[in-house]
Design brief:
With 395 residues, this protein is an alpha+beta fold. It has eleven helices and 17 strands. Strand 2 and strand 3 form a beta hairpin.
């Protein structure tokens, strides 16, 4: 049996080779078991234009990895009895409280709308069954945005959230802006801005000092820029960033963080809601989050209408996958080692995570480039996961 040191060195080589061949600009990868850290490595550069070594404290835009953190915040409020999972959403905006369903387009190309058959609940939002979608992945939503001049999410304006539903709440699974609405609910119910709530009740207790919506100048000095994969396969730095002074902080995708911070969040979930003496959730709440909440609805497939932004994402093609109250669940063992019912998800700038409650292990791998679901990055993610399970077996 290969020893731990040799297995870790092999993983180092895999990650180093990926950056030396420019499959990825730079990468940070970490894993832990419930008894402590298992692996951490940083390779390549933050910026292919100006350099700067990738380090374990590099700051990333974690995009949709934000969703699990916001979902945990919402579930804290459920624990406290301040909101019910199946209660109608609190009064925030007509788009949420009196939703309209997109029911086709008229002869002039304008959207036809009808009232939704039932209210939207927090459970609908946390499971992506409310009917909200993304305009870059749903063609009807994209057509509606174009026809009406609706603001894009990149504007940072609250009006960007006010899209019609693609279907009635509870009838389908489709990924979208649902957790941004859940973040608005956290603000409404708690009486705190989302960033302040997360800092006080989730990130602060877990020691996630580099996680927030507004990075400090020192954190910006450690921030990796977003790169873009070109047609010839090369990677080029871009000037992309989130809006400055947005009207709301997107609970669905606007956090900055580090690999070490996010691994602490995953370890909290592995430890049934507590880490280093700080309790964030009750064990029964973590168990509920990790349970299938969508019945027989297939989840996890994310198409793309914008090839430069994202490829089709389907981590387990042909496999039944479901959704809990924060992330995806695989209903069969994964091809690279993870157990059945292991939570996982990703961020659009090619960052990925999973946690395996059965084997008591979690991993996160972060890069910063588009398009999402880059084939080279997905291969590297698979190699990383296999190596983590090999480390579990090594002596």
């Amino acid at each position: 049996m290969t020893g731990k040191a040799e297995t870790a060195e092999q993983l180092d080589r895999v990650l180093r080779d990926a950056v030396e061949t420019r499959e990825v600009p730079g990468v940070v990868a970490l894993a832990a078991r419930d008894t402590g850290h298992l692996y951490e490595g940083a390779f390549g550069v933050r910026d292919l234009g100006s350099g700067g070594a990738m380090t374990l404290d590099t700051v990333f835009r974690i995009a949709s990895m934000t969703k699990a953190i916001t979902s945990v915040a919402a579930m804290q409020l459920v624990e406290q009895g301040k909101i019910g999972l199946d209660d109608p959403a609190p009064e925030i905006d007509p788009a949420l409280n009196r939703p309209q369903v997109l029911d086709g387009f008229d002869a002039a190309g304008q959207p036809k709308l009808r009232p939704a058959k039932r209210p939207i609940t927090l459970r609908h939002l946390l499971t992506h069954t409310a009917g909200f979608t993304y305009d870059w992945s749903n063609p009807n939503t994209a057509r509606c945005v174009e026809a009406t001049g609706m603001l894009p999410m990149s504007s940072g304006k609250r009006a960007a959230l006010c899209q019609p539903l693609a279907f009635d709440p509870g009838e389908r699974w489709e990924y979208g802006i649902n957790i941004d609405w859940a973040g608005r609910i956290v603000e409404t119910v708690s009486g705190q801005p989302l960033g302040a709530y997360l800092r006080e009740h989730v990130c602060g207790p877990l020691g996630m000092v580099d996680t927030g919506f507004v990075p400090t100048p020192e954190q910006r000095a450690r921030l990796a820029p977003v790169h873009q994969r070109q047609a010839d396969g090369t990677l080029t730095p871009t000037n992309f960033d989130f809006p400055v002074d947005p009207e709301f902080h997107g609970g669905g995708g606007a956090l900055y963080s580090t690999g070490r911070d996010y691994l602490a969040f995953l370890q909290m979930l592995l430890h049934d809601g507590t880490l280093n003496g700080a309790r964030v959730l009750r064990p029964e709440t973590v168990a509920l989050i990790n349970r299938n909440q969508v019945g027989d609805l297939q989840a996890g497939r994310l198409p793309s209408l914008v090839p430069e932004r994202a490829h089709l994402f389907e981590l387990f093609p042909g496999m039944q996958v479901r959704w809990g109250l924060a992330y995806m669940l695989n209903l069969a063992p994964g091809p690279h080692g993870r157990s059945i019912n292991s939570p996982s998800w990703a961020g659009i700038f090619n960052s990925y995570y999973w946690l395996d409650p059965a084997r008591r292990v979690a991993g996160v791998i972060l890069a910063q480039f588009l398009p999402f679901a880059d084939p080279a990055m997905l291969r590297l993610y698979g190699q990383f996961e296999r190596s983590v399970y090999a480390l579990l077996e090594a002596r």
